[in-house]
Amino acid sequence: MQTRTNENKKNIENNIAVAIPAYNEERSISKTIIKSQKYTKTVIVYDDGSMDMTREIAKRLGAIVIFSDTHLGKGEALRACFEKARELEVDVLVTIDADDQHNPDEIPSIILPIIEGEADVTVGSRFLEKDDSVPKYRIVGNRILNIITNKSNKGVTDTQSGFRAYNKKALNVIRPGEMGMGVDSEILMDLSENEIIIKEVPISVKYHENEKTSSHNPIYHTLDVILSVIKLVSIRHPLKFYCIPGAVLFITSLMLGWKSFTLFEEGMDYWINFALMATVSLLIGVQAIFVGITLFTVNTIIRKN
Prior knowledge:
Blueprint: H1 2-13, E1 16-22, H2 29-36, E2 42-48, H3 54-60, E3 64-68, H4 74-88, E4 92-95, H5 107-115, E5 121-125, H6 136-150, E6 164-167, H7 168-173, H8 183-193, E7 198-202, H9 218-236, H10 238-265, H11 271-304
Parallel strand pairs: 1-2, 1-4, 2-3, 5-7
Antiparallel strand pairs: 4-6, 5-6
Helix pairs in contact: 6-9, 9-10, 10-11
């Protein structure tokens, strides 16, 4: 039995791919590819419309290169990498950033819980262990995004980590629709809804002074993720998102309407102010309830089909 388990582990270890989304990363892409090739022969690079030598370097180093002539965003990059992994029928796909922020030598620790059957997905976390090198603004920003993302997901300490590993079961579930930075949160929400087992593994992170370590401004990144999560929640849980606030506004409109009527009866001139607020609350409330019911119906039809 132990021999068979060891054979299964060996087979999985021999069928690992590393996916590297890249955008204008000619300074660091070669190092990331070469270090990743220590652990797998299959390295997938998605060149997201780079205007430098990223694509050419990846090809010279023997990576499987997928590219777009225009910059489409991280969501499209990951979607293309997942599709390629399914096409190649890999057992484990590791995603890692191309900017030398992550250390490919930590790939064995990232995939270990999957190989041993403890998890379907592993997330490399910068916050499981104290690391003074992480800038304070990143810690604050990630805490905000963790709170928002984890409202619809199990408690993950680093929801925005790009250093992850997925087994076949998880790869068959993931179908991200987000184009931008909100894709990391969307993937976790998809996994949580499909009862995929997620485990975090501590990783180290390298931040370079006076060098870019992210293709997006941290403030833009945070706002992009927040808006994406709001959009995803509104689509996936329309009754909660629209109907509950709509019902509150509807009840408020009735209360304001009654207040307006009593003021009118008393001859007060400002009754019209309450009447206007009641009308606005009623219109918005009814519209929100209608939108929530409509989206819920559409979602139900789509699931059945």
